[in-house]
Specification:
The two termini are 38 Å apart. Helix content is 50%, strand content 9%. The longest helix has 23 residues.
Length: 313
């Protein structure tokens, strides 16, 4: 079974952990699976909005067998699980509905989401944001930081959650339709595997023709990063990043005496292959997809979407 993971470096800083204030869970908002549990209002909302229309099982209760035994994991907070369900529906599921049609979403979108409260920390200074397993399941970590990241704005939300979903969904699409061989040739000799988070690769990725540090891991991760970065950022941000890539490449060449790499050309060459791949295989225009995602994202932060309403309509 193929397992893809999106990993980022651990930022230095202080993390505050909240302790339990009561020994007995609220049975109406329990995030622990119990035998013969009754269906809650949230369960009914999930059934109406995920299970029935898309056959998606959105698991917010903690279930040990769905977790990775290599990491210490904790349940996602109920309130954050409700918000995440709304966000996944509005920003992801319905974005693909709008651009590619409901039949596409039903056929290709992952059939299970599983939420955990904490990140999955590794011993090399990185942590896992999410995983895609067997073309079927997406695990989303760090749910207990969701409310704070919403307050911090779209960049934080995309970095920690929604870019992750689009990244992992790209892996799932790649399992259905393979990545074109010419994608691997653009920066093929420059992939560095797990060294992507080490010096100098963690700083020099743009000058080397990669959109993120993690893109340097492999061509598969590069492809998923290209699509997910593109659609979660607006045109100005992308163009600014391309300028920064060329400036970084020129500065590096000045220091080393080597010929400057046309970094933006490398990145945009790979983007063109991603664009062609999505259009030819799924009839999706990634520019239209980006416009849709950006518009819906603006709706969220303009307060146009109630992230707490679980009324079944």
């Amino acid at each position: 079974m193929k397992l893809n993971k999106l990993i980022i470096p651990i930022a230095l800083g202080v993390m505050t952990l909240a302790s339990c204030t009561a020994d007995d869970p609220d049975e109406n908002k329990s995030v622990i699976v119990t035998p013969n549990e009754e269906q809650t209002e949230f369960d009914k909302w999930l059934e109406t909005n995920f299970a029935i229309p898309y056959n998606i099982d959105f698991k917010y209760r903690y279930k040990e067998t769905e977790s990775d035994y290599d990491y210490y994991t904790v349940p996602a907070k109920y309130e954050d699980a409700v918000k995440m369900a709304h966000l996944v529906k509005y920003l992801c599921v319905e974005s693909y509905d709008e651009v590619a049609g409901t039949d596409f979403t039903r056929r290709y979108f992952p059939k299970m989401f599983f939420l955990i409260g904490e990140w999955e920390y590794r011993n090399n200074g990185t942590y896992i944001l999410g995983t895609a397993e067997g073309g079927r399941k997406i695990l989303l970590a760090g749910l207990n930081y969701l409310s704070d990241n919403i307050k911090n704005g779209p960049e934080y939300m995309n970095r920690y959650y929604f870019k992750t979903i689009h990244h992992e969904f790209t892996h799932i699409m790649n399992q259905t339709k393979v990545i074109p061989p010419d994608f691997q040739l653009v920066t093929g000799k420059d992939y560095v595997g797990d060294m992507w988070s080490e010096e100098p690769y963690d700083r020099e990725y743009l000058s080397r023709g990669f959109i993120t540090a993690y893109s340097q891991n492999s061509y598969q991760e590069d492809f998923a990063e290209m699509l997910s970065e593109y659609i979660t950022h607006d045109a100005k941000t992308w163009n600014d990043t391309m300028e920064a890539a060329d400036e970084a490449a020129a500065e590096k060449a000045k220091k080393t005496g080597e010929e400057a790499v046309h970094a933006s050309e490398l990145i945009n060459s790979k983007l063109d292959i991603v664009r062609r791949y999505m259009k030819e295989n799924f009839n999706i225009d990634i520019d239209v997809l980006r416009e849709t995602v950006q518009r819906r994202q603006a709706d969220i932060f303009a307060g146009k979407v109630d992230l707490t309403d679980i009324t079944v309509k």
